[in-house]
Specification:
Length: about 300
């Protein structure tokens, strides 16, 4: 199909919109998963099509000129209208719909999978497609309806519901714990880290009065389940998130070597686009997560008594 010559190319508009919002070709390139030169080429093509510049270019940054600011407002409204129209179409779901969830590996294995039978019983008309990743998903570009993330504060521009507060807790095997009387003993041990949360051990050590303590060795993994598996095999002391860590399949092989209670860790949040609450299946999933987590917290509270 021939392109409508009365409209600029869509790829150029997308590149301009991303660069205009970010004030940077480099940031726009990362957002759209292309090179900065590709963004620059598309923006120049759009400027050529319009017959006038849209950016003021400096050696290390760009900024919109007056025409660019006005055009960005129009393009932004247009993209919003397209997105809302797509959301309305998506809201008209079939009898059996798929809800796509991006969830952290530990949350999925320890909390969600044991409850899938209950979800299927409550919602036989909804199929779940679950992607386990520690990477933050981009709701503007990726096919995901809900995300579960363990963060200090959710990113702006999205809706979120807090699911569970967690706190850091060192964990290891029982034999290894017998060598740990105080946190000072960690200087003779291996600390197991998670690359996505590099500050967990330093914050905990500072909170219990041992800032700057250096262990004998460090061992780093890119996921919580791998770190817990290493700890369960006696390879060192890992940092778990209480209470959900105790629902992991290997939790029976792990103990708390210290009784310190350190608060201030991140929380699990359910994250989604606000318009998606108009979709019955997404709303049903949100309500289910909140109800199940409420029951879980009540159970954990009773167990703690």
């Amino acid at each position: 199909m021939a392109q409508d010559r009365s409209l600029p190319p869509l790829t150029a508009l997308q590149a301009f919109h991303a660069a205009g919002l970010a004030g940077s070709f480099q940031v726009a390139a990362r957002k759209l998963a292309v090179t900065p030169s590709a963004i620059s080429h598309q923006v120049r093509a759009l400027e050529h099509w319009l017959g006038r510049p849209l950016f003021v270019r400096a050696p290390r940054h760009v900024r919109l000129n007056r025409d660019g600011q006005a055009f960005l407002r129009v393009i932004g409204r247009s993209f919003d209208e397209i997105r809302e129209a797509a959301d309305r179409i998506r809201a008209n779901e079939s009898k059996v719909a798929t809800v796509r969830i991006s969830a952290l590996p530990l949350f999925t294995s320890a909390w969600l999978i044991p409850r899938l039978e209950a979800f299927e019983r409550d919602h036989p008309d909804i199929s779940l497609e679950i992607d386990t990743t520690s990477r933050m998903v981009d709701f503007s570009r990726e096919r995901v309806d809900l995300a579960i993330r363990n963060v200090d504060q959710p990113a702006g521009g999205l809706e979120y519901r807090k699911l569970l507060d967690v706190r850091p807790v060192p964990i290891c095997t029982a034999p290894l714990s017998r060598n740990l009387s105080t946190p000072a003993d960690l200087a003779l041990q291996t600390l197991i880290h998670i690359s996505t949360r590099p500050g967990s051990w330093p914050r905990w050590l500072a909170a219990v009065g041992f800032p700057g303590l250096q262990p004998k060795q460090n061992l780093t993994f890119d996921s919580v389940p791998a770190a817990l598996e290493a700890a369960a095999l006696g390879r060192g002391i890992a940092m778990g998130m209480d209470p959900i860590v105790w629902d992991a399949s290997i939790a029976h092989r792990l103990v708390r070597p210290f009784s310190y209670r350190v608060d201030g860790a991140a929380s699990y949040y359910l994250v989604f686009r606000k318009p998606d609450l108009a979709r019955p299946n997404v709303r049903a999933c949100v309500d289910w997560f909140l109800a199940e987590m409420g029951a879980y917290k009540k159970m954990r509270h009773q167990d703690a008594k």
